[in-house]
Every structure is written in structure tokens, then in C-alpha cells.
Design goal:
Strand order of the largest sheet: 1-2-3-4-5
Bound molecules: NADP nicotinamide-adenine-dinucleotide phosphate
Number of helices: 5
Shape: globular
Order of helices and strands: HEHEHHEHEE
Helix content: 40-55%
Largest sheet: 5 strands, mixed
Strand content: 5-15%
Distance between the termini: 36 Å
Length: 180
């Protein structure tokens, strides 16, 4: 049994259901040593940021579907990045994104995953909300981020608890909707 399957089994046996799933796990580039191929970099980034998230959601969806949580509960939160915005890429709003093509595109793929699951879960009245924590000072960026990670965590909290089904399919940061 995989770790993800074991985690879902544990939640099932302990609680019988899950109200909110937050997919926060992500990597940005470390621990690259400099001699990795581009394929290895893409594989490393997509493995956690995309494949891992999809597998995680798949394992927990049955438990979310049996949740009896009233609004604003019953939802999946995806932690994305502004670097993954196609609209911003088109306008070259984050020129530095070019330095992080595997990371940025992995977040674009994550956004796409979110919209597919949003459609799948509509009838079950479970929401899928995408959030960007902003550029926070964390291990991910060797603590160069400008934002206090507690503010980033508040963004996740808001995405997990604010509103009801009307939040599904939205990508939010600081109370604003971001462009896909
Ligand atoms: N920091 C920013 O400026 C920023 C901006 C936009 C979006 N984000 C997103 O915010 C999320 C959180 O990042 P962070 O900034 O808090 O970075 P972080 O401090 O490096 O935390 C990343 C977390 O993901 C976990 N993780 C990484 N790979 C995993 C895997 N394969 N399986 C399970 N867990 C794994 C790590 O666990 P371990 O500690 O056990 O390795 C850690 O708890 C990420 O999705 C990131 O892309 C961050």
C-alpha cells in the first residue's frame, strides 16, 4: 500500500469522512546540483506538484463525497503560484518565471487539475478552490520571499473556509480573484 493510500485508509477508519483536503506539498527546484538534465528537472517538479497532488485527491475523493459538512465545508484546496498563470505569462508579467519553467508550468498543470476536479465534484456539492500564498519566506525559496509565511498560511485558511459552492473554480489571493 502506498503512503497516500495508507493515509486515506487511516482517515477512513478514524473519522469515516473528510471535510477539507488541502494540497499544500510542493517543491521548486532544490536539491538540484546543477548536472540534472532538463527531463530530470521536469520529472522532479511534476512528480510532487502535479502527479502527487492528483494521486492524493484521487485517494481522498471518496471520503470527501461522504462528508456531511454544511457550507462552507466539503472542499479541496490547491496551493498554486502566480507563476503558473497563463494570462500573466502571456503578458510577461513575471519575467523571472522563465527561469523556473518546470516549476511555473507544473503550477499551470495544477490549475488545470483543479478545474477538472471542480467539474467532477460539482454535482456532489464539493468545492475546489485554488489559492496563491504570495511570495513567502520559506524553505522553498531559501527564505528570500518578501511575505511572512503566516500571511501565506492565512490565505490557505481563507481558501479552506470562506464562502460556499460559489468559491469553486476560483483562484484567489488576498481577497482577489487571479486570472488563469
Ligand atoms: N513560498 C512561496 O513564495 C510560494 C509562492 C507560491 C506558492 N507556493 C506554494 O506553497 C506550497 C507550500 O510551499 P512552502 O513555501 O511552504 O515551501 P516549504 O516550506 O518548502 O514547504 C513545502 C512542504 O511540502 C512538503 N513536500 C514537498 N515534497 C513533498 C512530497 N513529495 N511529499 C509530501 N510532502 C512534500 C514538504 O515536506 P517536508 O518538509 O517533509 O519535505 C513541506 O512540508 C507549495 O505548493 C508551493 O509551491 C509557495
Amino acid at each position: 500500500m502506498t503512503l497516500v493510500a495508507a493515509a486515506a485508509e487511516h482517515v477512513k477508519n478514524t473519522h469515516g469522512h473528510l471535510d477539507i483536503l488541502v494540497n499544500n506539498a510542493g517543491v521548486a527546484g532544490d536539491p538540484w546540483k546543477g548536472n540534472e538534465t532538463l527531463r530530470e528537472k521536469f520529472e522532479y517538479l511534476y512528480n510532487t506538484n502535479v502527479f502527487g497532488t492528483a494521486v492524493n485527491i484521487d485517494a481522498f475523493i471518496p471520503l470527501i463525497k461522504v462528508s456531511k459538512a454544511p457550507a462552507p465545508g466539503r472542499r479541496i484546496v490547491m496551493v498554486s503560484s502566480g507563476l503558473g498563470s497563463l494570462a500573466s505569462t502571456l503578458k510577461n508579467e513575471y519575467p523571472e518565471a522563465e527561469l523556473f519553467v518546470p516549476y511555473s508550468t507544473s503550477k499551470t498543470a495544477l490549475n488545470s487539475l483543479a478545474l477538472h476536479y471542480m467539474q467532477q465534484l460539482k454535482e456532489d456539492k464539493s468545492a475546489v478552490v485554488v489559492v496563491c500564498p504570495g511570495h513567502c519566506s520559506t524553505n522553498l525559496n531559501e527564505y528570500v520571499g518578501a511575505r511572512d509565511p503566516r500571511d501565506g498560511a492565512m490565505e490557505l485558511y481563507t481558501a479552506a473556509t470562506q464562502g460556499g459552492m460559489e468559491m469553486s473554480g476560483k483562484w484567489i489571493r488576498s481577497g482577489e480573484e487571479l486570472r488563469w
